[in-house]
Amino acid sequence: MEITAYLKTTCGWSNGVRAILAKYDLPYEEKDILKNPEFRAEMEQRSGQKLSPCVVVDGHMLPDISGEELENWLVANDRISRSDAPVEVPINSSCQNKKQHVA
What we know:
Blueprint: E1 3-7, H1 12-23, E2 29-32, H2 37-47, E3 54-57, E4 60-62, H3 67-76, H4 98-101
Parallel strand pairs: 1-2
Antiparallel strand pairs: 1-3, 3-4
């Protein structure tokens, strides 16, 4: 499975996505859209919108997605079997600053 995650350094939703990817030990390429404006532009072009995080799984763009939504998509699309293993951070928590949500 090939996964690219367009995330922010500090954002509740981005941390939730990271937590789900770690929970299932899924390798992924992280593209920090705050540290690299080219990644932000790439995310906006690929997703057609400005909200983050966005995750691409085997070519399927999942725009503006939480960790909870990512886990549900992965299960529904037979990419993983659901695990009850705990995660260290909330998987559906917003950014502290609402402006952080927009790239």
